[in-house]
Amino acid sequence: MNPTAICFGEILWDVFPDGRKIGGAPLNVALKLQNFNITTSIISRIGDDLNGEIILDYIQEHQISTDYIQIDSKYKTGEVIVFLNNDGGATYNITYPVAWDKIELTSALRKIVVDADIFIFGSLASRDVQSKNTLINLLNNANFKVYDVNLRKPHYTLEGVLEFMILADFIKFNDEEIEEICILLNLKTASLEEQIMEVASYTNTTQICVTLGCKGAVLFIENNFYYNNGFTVNVVDTVGSGDSFLAGLISQLFLKKAPQQSLDYGCAVGAIVASKKGANPEILDFEINSILKQ
């Protein structure tokens, strides 16, 4: 039987200068996990509007259950205005409040979380007290908890990030995020490895990953470090590449692949997504196998 995963948080429209695409980090991760043989559901909330209807249809087309996506009659489906620089890097203007800020706790949500092998969440969905309280309740029922830190100013507090870091079994940062956290915690570190070990000690977390953009990623598991130096691609935009990396990495770890093999796979998936437009382009097996040969 395939492992099962739950992704919690935002579903929204990424609005680019030349069009829009369906996204949100939890949905991006869920779509890729489903492709990588992890049976995945998503917990979120959308507005009772056309934007929400289109999202539901899209998710159903990708064979992911919409049973745990709530409909809000007051708040609209979320949107993010995406700004791209000349290198394809993205910054975001995230609308607030919207439907996914108001996810309500139900017995059905508790049950599906208890039954799942993996529970994946990020910082953004905790910016509103309603969804944050629901998230904390579900974390108390979850098995293996994966925290994608994914800081988006001004939508987080240090106290909130620390609370979730301590609750997590696996933490994923990018290099800027872990540096910011170490500075805020006044952790004295001289290298990335020291940053990782200090955070691991502070949070009592034995599995940490740090992405390094085009330079790859570092994975820390049970006091061992694993490295990937990145793959060469022509970057179109980086939207969703970190989410796809995480899905690739976690899927392989839960399919019992070795840490180095899992890290390489995640980096390959993230690189391929960065070479295409939008957060959820189609990825074919031969593309992954080809880039892994670099």
From TrEMBL:
It comes from the Bacteria. Pfam families: PfkB (PF00294). Residues 21-281 form the Carbohydrate kinase PfkB domain. Keywords: Kinase, Transferase. GO terms for molecular function: kinase activity. The keyword ATP-binding does not apply. InterPro entries: Carboh/pur_kinase_PfkB_CS (IPR002173), PfkB_Carbo_kinase (IPR050306), PfkB_dom (IPR011611), Ribokinase-like (IPR029056). Belongs to the carbohydrate kinase PfkB family. PANTHER family: CARBOHYDRATE KINASE PFKB DOMAIN-CONTAINING PROTEIN, HEXOKINASE FAMILY MEMBER. This is Carbohydrate kinase. The lineage of its organism: Bacteria, Pseudomonadati, Bacteroidota, Flavobacteriia, Flavobacteriales.
